[in-house]
């Protein structure tokens, strides 16, 4: 089979097809028939897979192959409300020799900020929140029920949203089972899957321009101008149908999402790390960032996530100045509080970059801090997957009582560990090696 066909198969919804394609590509690579470029400086630790919508259709295996073929230093996945891609992605990274990490994202309710917007526009008290450094797809014991609850809440919101939009759009409607769920490999639909279903359905009417103009209160000229830029058109339709003020929007209440404590229980039961997601510092809640961080630290957060592109790659010069300044201030605060930084581009919206532009003037000075965060989460992932010796393990907490000491150790592990090293980690002797023995073993391989 041609390489291009195998690469397409990497994103097939059938996991057996994906695995067969991955193994065939890895075999060709091993035989010198598929050559990867040398490792560069680029990396992305926040990529959604097709398990929660990837704008380019990438599966976990497809993302791992992308990283290998582009020479990325590291890649990390983060999916909404599911861990379905974790094992596939880490296994693919191990096979290909890619530094990988895996996480989950959801929205939680934070009663302490009930009157303040945080990072979910128009929704006071609601907070996008993350866990990073997962090593498996199946949470142990009761934590599995928490994960199942995330999916149930998400599906209920989606169905209610689709029902409202169907009522508003008249001749254009979608059936959730028939039109939305088939767009997903494992039934975890998101707003973007629903949007894709409506965009497809609208293509079947005699005059889509007239339909959208009438449905959204726009002129035909305005719709035609938007259609000339599919990314803008998609985002515009989503804002009119699904976001605050849209016909399908449902204002959340404290019961719409899990509590922070519930989500942290899921994360830590899996040996993963609670991670605050920062937007851009312009909301009321993020203007009170020290209060927010102190609260999150008291509840177990040990890292932070940033999507840098939205903080400097902004058309308006004044917004760009303000947001870039906020970015620098937040990075400085995270470093003062010993919070490693996870960065990426999401890839869940058309137009998202595959990787950040780390050479941009606003980004270059921050690169060392961002790469240090990448080494940190890779070091944690390596030891957690190999021996259960991750950042929050009893082993780590006994040997490194402070965050700063622990951060330094796992970052050093990530710096030293070759990406080709199997995650069985042959350099780990015994079940409870000393930290120095681990570092010594890694240094011999450098």
Walk me through what this model shows.
- This protein folds into three domains: 1-35, no CATH class; 39-139 and 270-445, Metal-dependent hydrolases (TIM Barrel, Alpha-Beta Barrel); 147-241, no CATH class.
- The relative contact order is 0.11.
- Strand 1, helix 3 and strand 2 form a beta-alpha-beta unit.
- The protein is of the alpha/beta class.
- The chain has a seven-stranded mixed beta sheet with strand order 1-2-3-4-5-6-7.
- The protein is built from 19 helices and seven strands.
- The chain has helices at 3-9, 15-30, 60-70, 86-96, 143-169, 176-180, 191-202, 208-216, 220-227, 230-241, 260-269, 284-287, 289-298, 309-312, 317-336, 367-387, 394-399, 403-416, 435-445; strands at 44-47, 75-80, 100-109, 126-132, 273-278, 303-306, 341-343.
- The mean pLDDT is 94.
Quick recap:
This protein has 446 residues and is α/β, with parallel strands linked by helices. Helices cover 49% and strands 9% of the residues.
The rounded distance between the terminal residues' Cα atoms is: 37 Å
Radius of gyration: 22 Å
Oligomer: single chain
Please report the number of helical segments.
19
Average residue pLDDT:
94
The CATH superfamily of the largest domain turns out to be Metal-dependent hydrolases
Q: What's the arrangement of strands in the largest beta sheet?
A: 1-2-3-4-5-6-7
Strand runs, count: 7
Helix content: 40-55%
Low-confidence stretches: none
CATH topology of the largest domain: TIM Barrel
The major sheet is characterized as: 7 strands, mixed
Shape label: globular
Listing every helix as H and every strand as E from the N terminus to the C terminus, the arrangement reads HHEHEHEEHHHHHHHEHHEHHEHHHH
Per CATH, the architecture of the largest domain is Alpha-Beta Barrel
CATH class of the largest domain: Alpha Beta
